[in-house]
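Lab notebook, page 48
Experiment: co-folding of the full assembly
Goal: obtain a model of how the components sit together before planning crosslinking
Operator: M.T.
Materials (sequences as entered):
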Amino acid sequence: MTKRYVGIDLGGTNLKLGLASAEGELFRRLSVPTGADEGPDPVMARMAEAVRRLAEEAGLALDDLAAVGVGAPGPLDCQAGIIHFAPNLPGWINVPVRDTLQEALGRTVVLENDANAAAYGEFRVGAARDVRSMFILTLGTGVGGGIVHEGRLVRGATDTAAELGHVIVAHGGRLCGCGNRGCLEAYASATAVVERFRQEAGVSDLARRPRLEAKDVFEAAAAGDRAAARIVSETAEYLAVGIASILHVLNPEMVVLTGGMMGSGEAFLEEIRGHVRRLAFPSAWEACRLCSSRLGGDAGILGSALAAETFDRTGQLA
Amino acid sequence: MTKRYVGIDLGGTNLKLGLASAEGELFRRLSVPTGADEGPDPVMARMAEAVRRLAEEAGLALDDLAAVGVGAPGPLDCQAGIIHFAPNLPGWINVPVRDTLQEALGRTVVLENDANAAAYGEFRVGAARDVRSMFILTLGTGVGGGIVHEGRLVRGATDTAAELGHVIVAHGGRLCGCGNRGCLEAYASATAVVERFRQEAGVSDLARRPRLEAKDVFEAAAAGDRAAARIVSETAEYLAVGIASILHVLNPEMVVLTGGMMGSGEAFLEEIRGHVRRLAFPSAWEACRLCSSRLGGDAGILGSALAAETFDRTGQLA
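Observation: model returned without errors.
Model output:
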């Protein structure tokens, strides 16, 4: 039998798991509530239990799994396998998630930043499978980033590389969750899109809706709401400023955008492209395709599984 | 005899050459006027002649030179050895400088972007000789950049990586020479410092001086000129915005600043550090030393010589 890998996307709400081949075929998925408010030990026990259940449902023993990859929010330390802190996981302070899971499962475990895992998934088997250098922006509650350079993830000296949501696009601008001002995340996260719309749209019914989401703003823009359209356009422009800056650092072959907002379709992407074309050097822009995710919500679990595969095959982190 | 390498810094005003060992000892320098207005062929003939003269002065034959490195302004193509275009070198359009020099000298020649060469020099034998990942900002007429990641230069898909002067620090801000607005270069080049001072200082004697240089502004600031001090402070802040953004992309171990402006001393550097500390994630800031060049004006020739050494030793670009 060919080797099998499990990828786990450790989210604040759900644990999402996938069983994959070394080539990145996704055979089976599983999603269970994280139960984050119970703290790290019960969550890690639930992760181990979910791996067992996923294997069992696929007719496999734990020993049939070559390795397990965990994509997790950070800051974390990939080499040591420790999550230092995670805003959406109460009580996770310096948790040795890799060694704990390794002991519980008796399998090799690899820890990876969640946005890096998404980048690696798109790089190995997604939108960027034909290139050697790319970065991803994950537009969700925050803006995450992951970079692949010459086929390997860029982690930096302390696993703080590719924090692309905190590239500054407007010096002295909107306050970001990180405490700084003007970060890309303060403009282009799904959360920021909703906040900016509420602040700028005035007294419209839509802006006063209690459970407003970024996709509602995008839908309203598409339906002709002028305030929403202005927010969407400005979001495209801020994204382009961040992307152009990063193109001038990395000059990659591809930029992949992902997250619920990107479901709004090709028009938004085309608007971003127009701004980047104007803001970036021709040699940087022409070398680069700017596109949507191919793997969507599976990028994290596939990337985690394939990061485990890389470690299993090479003995090195992806 | 141990191997000898020549590094050439191809500037718009002068050709600077250095003869170095594989370990980066600089034995001998030579500087001759570029004569750029005569166009590419005479300049390339002068480069070859200068290499011959440098070897001769050192008691060497051309055959004693293992390889020659050229650090040149771009855009250029390192793999093909071609300078596509150079703003300060009239008539240089798609000039095959590597092959032309190789034929004239009968020695292996390597072409490298000039700021990349400076980064590589600092990385191999300068301020960054003890780290594996760093970037440099060269603050001159423009703002150049070079990045070393895991011991190798980052060139990108089309040799447009590390154009760090064109990271956007103020969306919609000052017009940059590249045609875009708000680039780091539009605030932090020596040229921009002088222009900003002239625009903001009003009618002071200093601002009306016809041949004003950035170091004059820095000296005036140190001597208590309030307008000059404000410009210097703002320059430190814009540099910090750009540096913080790049830290969040690369998370390197070191940032090296170079160029005449940095001669103004530790106080300016300390002011930049204060802003970066405030703007960057603690894990990115704490991993990173921010310091001045160690090689100064020799970084380009040493980096070019050592890029030639790397190619001679490994068959790959640095």
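Interpretation: Chain B has eleven helices and 13 strands.
Next step: discuss with group before ordering constructs.
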